[in-house]
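>> received
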Amino acid sequence: MTCESCRAAVNHPVAAEIAAKLHAACQDICGCERFRLSDHSPRQVENQEILNLIIIDPQGIKDGKIPHPGALVQIDRGGLSVLRDCAANDEFELTINQLKARAERSGAERFFHGVCTFTAGTIRVDGESRLLCVYDTALKEKPSHADVFGPDLMAMAGSGSISKGEHERRNRARIKRFIDKIGDCFVLAKSFRGGAFVRYSRLEN
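>> returned
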């Protein structure tokens, strides 16, 4: 395996196929974590780093948690985008505007609700087992960008095989575990970075 194969995987033109391409790029579980996957990146994502998942209203936060697993299904497709805590405010503002513009193109209106914050190490492991992968996927305009992916469930099954139904069950279970592990992680827009982005939120936020 080479860094080039991992970089090719994360830059695959069909977003829904990126997870599968990453699985194929390395025989080791989450093996592409060992590399900087972009020339714009400062370094690979370390376990102690804080990650920020931007939450758009309405998206579904209840009692400080993400209640609906559907909000996290991208871990098995194109990746769940997060910003590392070293990100400048400009990176957050750009991301918020991109999410709002995407919603507007679909005829919807969205607001910045806040962020879920957690460390990379919290979601990478669950006891003695690997839970999720966190890849350094920096972009030119967002050098602190990263993506969360689920590791290859087939590879984790070892020499055995699992049915499509069992694969779906295990994927739902790890998404639920993701939610449980990050816990009460939500920070409202008015409290995040001194309310720097509150102008993008609903007035009552």
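>> The radius of gyration is 17 Å.
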